[in-house]
Amino acid sequence: MAGFDLIKRMFGDHGERRTAPRSGGPKEACVLVVDDSPTIRAVLGKMLAQNGHVVLKAADGESALEIARRDRPDLIFLDIVMPGMSGFAVLRALRHDPLTCGIPIVMISGNLQATEQFYVQRFGADDFMKKPFGRSEVFARIEHLTRSGRLVVCQRAPEETVPAEPEPSEAEHAAIPDIAMPDPHDMAVPPAGQD
Questions:
Q1: Strand ranges (DSSP E) for 47-118?
Q2: What CA–CA distance (Å, rounded) separates 2 from 149?
Q3: What is the pLDDT of residues 63-75, one digit of tens each?
Q4: Buried b vs exposed e over 80-106: b needs ≥16 C-beta within 10 Å?
Q5: Does the domain spanning 26-152+177-183 belong to CATH 3.40.50.2300?
Q6: What is the dihedral of CA 179, 40, 65, 153, to 10 degrees?
Q7: What does pTM read for this prediction?
């Protein structure tokens, strides 16, 4: 038993670390997570909520645009490969809309071709995160955007407060993995005409 305690002290108790809020970034930011994968939305939502952020979620590009215009989040995590409106199309629409053009956007993808295309075309996103990703990478992106002055949490009047999604039950919360893996469809090449 003493050996186990020594190991815990050397490496820390990872169960406590995962639930402890991260420092170095803003608190209570309103963050929109856009991904057609319910798993990615749940994992990223769990990570952000554990750090005190209000999380909004959208499963497709059209919903993302509607939520972004209505609630004007402080930050958006946006998947590139989605059915219907691609993440690149959503990014262009957000950048051309005066209500949303200043919101920092982190593009996410597990698709190698989409990743390469992002680096080549760089449509105005602030950062990129490749799937799979864990807590440290998510919060490194947030800290980078905060330090660079791109992420500034807007103080909202009580009547403007964005309602968070209902919290999952303890069992649902425990079932959410701590690392976001790409979905199989993210690994496929996007069809012609999809950005």
A1: 54-58, 75-79, 105-109
A2: 46
A3: 999 999 999 999 9
A4: bbbeebbbbbbbebbeeeeebeebbbb
A5: yes
A6: -30
A7: 0.71
